[in-house]
Amino acid sequence: MNKSAGDGMSRRMEGAQKQAAVEGDGIGLGQQVRNHVLAKVSSGEWPEGYRIPSESRLAGQFSASRMTIHIALRDLSSEGVLVRRQGAGTFVAPRRSQSTFLELRNIHSEIEGRGNLHTTDVIKLEEVNSDLTIATEMNISPGSIVFHSILVHRENGKPLQIEDRYVNPRFSPDYLEQDFTKITPHAHLMATGPLEEIEHIIQAVPVDEVSRKLLEMQSGEPLLLLRRRTWSRGMIASSARLLHPGSRFSLAGRMKAAR
Fold this sequence. Notes:
The protein has 8 helices and 8 strands, in the order H-H-H-H-E-E-H-E-H-E-E-H-E-H-E-E. The protein is of the alpha+beta class. It has 2 domains: 3-92, Winged helix-like DNA-binding domain superfamily/Winged helix DNA-binding domain (Arc Repressor Mutant, subunit A, Orthogonal Bundle), CATH 1.10.10; 107-245, Chorismate lyase-like (Chorismate lyase). The chain has a 6-stranded antiparallel sheet with strand order 3-4-5-8-7-6. A two-stranded antiparallel sheet has the order 1-2.
């Protein structure tokens, strides 16, 4: 065997040994990073709002590439464990008391996570007296005051979602004072109180003319409705109807199979 061939084999063996060492019992580097972060968060060593080590520091710690670290942190962010803030770093997200097949996520973060621009049109922001239907949804007495907002969320200028939401004033007395062109109702409500429970109902519904125009939909295009109620502080904090053009939006989830 010539020297160059021997050196090449030696380098390959050395690389394989290093890979085996860092992967331990067959656990990939990405999963090792995930396990490390989850352990730190669940133990409380990294509390809510804690700025975790940088990608380059974690890459050095795990002898991994920056891409491996980036993907692991990106996935944990999409799962709601971490929050990534451009120019500031990656932080431990607020803890949630329950998880669901459909994650409660901020549409602003979803759109910007795809590298696109999120903008919002405020259609309505008002105080109304609840009728029987709304009172039943919110578990309050008919005629009680509720806050009502209708927003259109856009991705790169194209309407993606109508957010038709009712909010309990007892939970968020300053809801109507928010500038929802700069902050989403999701972000405001999550900052107002701890999330206790979520209810999701998904339906395909006929397209009414108002929704068709707001979402700039073609005739015959399907409309997807996600109904969402959230509980906090022992009350129904919010009830929302989230309407999406079926040709431009899909719902997806991933979970472990029961054993």
